[in-house]
Amino acid sequence: MRTNKVFIPEVFFTNDCLTGEDVVKSTRVLGDLDGVFQDKEAYGKMNKEQVVYHVSSYLPVLENTPGGLFMGITTLYPGKVGQEYFMTKGHFHSNSDRAEFYWGVEG
Q1: Of 34, 45, 49, 67, whose Cβ has the fewest other Cβ atoms within 10 Å?
Q2: What pLDDT shows up at residue 2?
Q3: Comparing 1-5, 39-43, 57-61, 96-100, which segment has the lowest mean pLDDT?
């Protein structure tokens, strides 16, 4: 006999971010992105407290757990440094065989 169970999600996607008990949120300002943009002169003249992006992440397992899946949502704000649009600072994965996908949802 099959029993039906109700699955209560631990993480929710609401208002352009993840919410839930174990969701980690961070904000990056322009000052966090030193060395990312080519135009150092333009960067030097800008307000380093300007918000560039927000990230909300759900990391249910330790990094490098085989088969582990992280989820995250990044909200990137409009703006430019010189001729370059705002971007995330990026990161490296300690294991090169780990995949990462990004989808543009809006904008």
Answers
A1: 67
A2: 64
A3: 1-5
Strand partners, 24: 57
Q: 15 vs 18, 36, 75, CA distance in Å?
A: 8, 29, 11
Q: What proportion of the chain, given as a percentage, has pLDDT over 90? A: 40
75-79 long-range CB contacts below 8 Å, 24 or more apart?
Answer: 75/16, 75/17, 76/52, 77/51, 77/52, 77/53, 78/107, 79/50, 79/52
Q: Which of 28, 45, 3 is nearest to 86 (CA)?
A: 28
Q: Between 30 and 60, where is the model more confident?
A: 30
Residue type at position 3: T
Q: Residue 103: count other Cβ atoms within 10 Å of its Cβ.
A: 4
